[in-house]
Amino acid sequence: MISAGMLSPKKINHFSKMNLYLNYGLLGLATILNRAGYDPIVIHGNFINPIQFVDDLDRAGHLESALPILISIPSSYALDWTRVVCRLIKQMNPDALIVVGGRWVIGDDGAWIRRQIPDIDLVVFGTAEHSIENTLNTVMWDQLVSTPPNTLSTLDYSLLDGFADFTPSFEVSRGCGRGCGFCAEGDVPLSTMKNARVLADEIEACFTVYQENDIRAYFEASLFQPSSEWIADIYKEFATHNLDFQWRAESRVDAFSSHQVEQLAKAGLKVLDLGLESASPQQLLNMRKTTTPAIYLRRASELLKACHDNGIWTKVNVLLYPGETKESISETEEWLDHHRQYIKGISAGPMVIYRYGNSSQVFLKEIEFYGARAVSSSDLETKGFADIHLSKELSNQDAIFEANRLSSNFMSTRDYYDLKTFSYFPRDMTFEKFSE
User: Would you say 342 and 308 are in contact if contact means Cβ atoms under 8 Å apart?
Assistant: First the structure.
């Protein structure tokens, strides 16, 4: 089971190729197959050269199996890498069967992904928890059905090749449903949180695999929004299981009360990624982040201060969106500067449109209202994503410059390192290595 790698990173800097992106969805499917009696192994392509990657598969004997090779494509940026790897696998073993999935890349367009990757034998749509075993049996291929998207994964880290390098993740909820204009999960309802005892058992099993407790885990959720009852339950279960570790999650700036922040800190929350996106009232309305920008920004202020007061690092996400101008960026920068003491780091970037069926073309038409347009009109079809000029005033290159300037203005070298040690850098990356 292969998590597709990339030929080059999305963000070009000195450290991008150090990042390890755990495909926890694929590991969840491997866990299901393992419990069904199979012997899967999950291998990440990362930024390994495709020729070397396939040679390594061959030397390890992974191309000799009569069962299909399952490839998960987590990003459109991985398409070029996947295309080359599939061609090389078929050249080395023409009888190999290759099954490809990737919910956010493929959408419902099997014909398009087959044009992108001609050597695949089967395309799996959506999520696959209920049908993954049938992908191993060609007789069952015409009976595959997608799993409802709110089925949560359980992860067995003993199935992950090179697990010691990766920061573990644990899926705690799916969906969001808050309706933001830029998000594919804007209309996917938020699931209930994973049962606290089940989650504690899963983490305890992970401790056993890693043979240590300092795992710095990521609680995976598009919108981490636990109830006060869930927070109390997880605190109790962690105490019962003697689980003492720090973890990271991602949420909105208007998702918690100050009291909940205090309780989450006691349960080990150390880093909170917050999707502020903008502090420009007009841009917040444009992206459908909120209908009441003043209330939204007030709650953002309260949350940042509460996190700081409780020892939680906040990494604020900023999205430069269609309609952006120098004035709207200044509004966001001034707001961030006013809250600088509460912010550990900033992750800023311009909007990128990813191909997702017909909805991407519809979105491209929508943003013309803001003076935005694709840098290349053919990129969605040929690459699976498109960079955009955000407005008549702000080109794509201008937006990249502004995003990089924002990030570097609010984040020291040490801040950058500290945040990356949760879920991105290899676990043995010391600050001394990073400084060198």
Answer: yes
Between CA 321 and CA 349 the distance in angstroms is 9
**CA distances, 124 to each of 21, 98, 107, 121, 192 (Å):** 22, 11, 10, 10, 26
Give me the half-sphere count of Cα atoms (radius 13 Å) on the Cβ side of residue 285.
10
The yes-or-no verdict on residue 281 having pLDDT over 70 is: yes
Q: pLDDT tens for residues 6-54?
A: 998 776 666 777 889 999 999 999 999 999 999 999 999 999 999 999 9
Per residue in 239-251, pLDDT (tens digit) is 999 999 999 999 9
Q: Hey, what amino acid is at 345?
A: G
| CA diameter of the chain | 62
Q: Which of helix, strand or coil describes residue 408?
A: helix
DSSP 87-146: HHHHHH-TT--EEEE-HHHHTT-HHHHHHH-TT-SEEE-SB-TTTGGGGG-GGGGGG--P
Q: Strands, E, within 205-278: which ranges?
A: 217-220, 247-251, 269-277
Q: Which residues, other chains included, contact 361 with Cβ-Cβ below 8 Å and sequence gap of 6+?
A: 380
Distance separating alpha carbons of residues 16 and 296, to the nearest angstrom: 32
Compute the C-alpha angle 357/1/10, nearest 5°: 55
**Does the predicted model carry a pTM greater than 0.90?**
yes
Burial of 234 (0-12, 13-18, 19+ CB in 10 A): buried
Is residue 377 within 8 A of residue 361, CB to CB? The reply is no
Q: Which amino acid is at 366?
A: E
Which two tokens mark 249? 């999650």
Torsion on CA atoms 30, 34, 37, 41, rounded to nearest 10:
70
Q: Which residues pair with 124 in a beta bridge?
A: 101
Q: Count Cβ atoms below 10 Å from residue 51 Cβ, excluding itself.
A: 11
CB 316 within 8 A of CB 351: no
